[in-house]
Description:
Layout lengths: L1 H15 L3 E6 L4 E8 L10 E8 L15 E11 L6 E14 L2 E5 L2 E8 L8 E10 L4 E3 L1 E16 L2 E14 L5 E13 L1
Amino acid sequence: MLKKIFFTLLVSTSVFAAHQVGVNVNDREVGGEIRLDMGRMGNAMNNAYIGARFLNGDNNNSKTIVDPDPLVEVSFMVMRPVQGVQGLKLGLGIKGEYTEIDGERYAAIPLGIEAELRLPINTPFPFYLNGAFYYAPSVLSFKEGDGYMETRIGLDVEPIENARFGVGYRIIDTDLKTRDVTYNDAWYFGMRLDF
């Protein structure tokens, strides 16, 4: 199943001129993400991205979940450089999340902010500090969902132009109407390619 998903992501990058493709792993999980630059797809919306993500959560990195199903996501984000702050980009986005938690269907539409800062340090290759925060209250949660909150922070290095690797930490809370649930709480190692 995972091999099919990654193959589909790779094929999609060549067909749709993807802007970013990323993979992140730890000792128990693998996640994949693709973001398409709408400006490169013939659309007049520069700095706008549509994307999809897949994360196969593991119960060792989840709290109160016996058998987590994969978390699937679709997203839309606008990200631009901040004028007057060298190397800083800010983005605002909306996502659609879906999974099943111990047999209960979960869906949410969180809103959020993302940031990326190219660190102003003198090194042979650039370093980037990045983070994201997404939140959906119960009014934006559906099925058996009662809230969503995701926090990510990471540090990337770009030894080759348009190819990064780094480390990060994420917490994803997918609360149900019956109980609070932490879907994922884990460190990960990742790689991202920009086209």
